Amino acid sequence: MATIYREVAVETAAADAWAALRDPAEVARVFAGVLIAARVEGDLRWVTFADGTVIEERVIAVDDAHMRLAYSVGGGRLEHHHATLHVVADTPARCRVIWISDFKPDERGAVVETLMDAGCVALARNLARR
User: Would you indicate the residue range of the signal peptide (predicted)?
Assistant: First the structure.
């Protein structure tokens, strides 16, 4: 199983970043530029990427005490996918978002890494605007 780890500095308070990330319906706004839409029903959400690709995600946990969101991706070209987004306060006006993605098969690493890197840029830009 492959793992990709990213840490993104965000110029906003941790509580504000968490408020956006904890809401599954906000994912298209947080990742605007990479995602163009999201639809949520219960713990499932469907996200639409800028290229029109739609994937189904399941929100596994929203942990307010630790500012941590866990989700998985169903179907598609991944045999298994589980990821977490964790907000950590650095200063009153700055935080980090730690994004960890575990997936199979390992050969999909370049695709997952490209999407995560684009997502990190979008996340930093869009959360700083809050």
Answer: none
pTM score = 0.92
47 close to 33: Cβ distance less than 8 angstroms: no
Contact, 126 vs 19, CB < 8 A? no
* 36-68 pLDDT tens trace: 999 999 999 999 999 999 999 999 999 999 999
Query: 2-22+56-128: which CATH topology?
Result: Alpha-D-Glucose-1,6-Bisphosphate; Chain A, domain 4 (3.30.530)
Q: How far apart are CA 128 and CA 59, in angstroms?
A: 24
Q: pLDDT tens digits, residue range 19-31?
A: 999 998 899 999 9
What would the two tokens of residue 61 be? 């946990």
Residues 108/13, Cβ–Cβ less than 8 Å: no
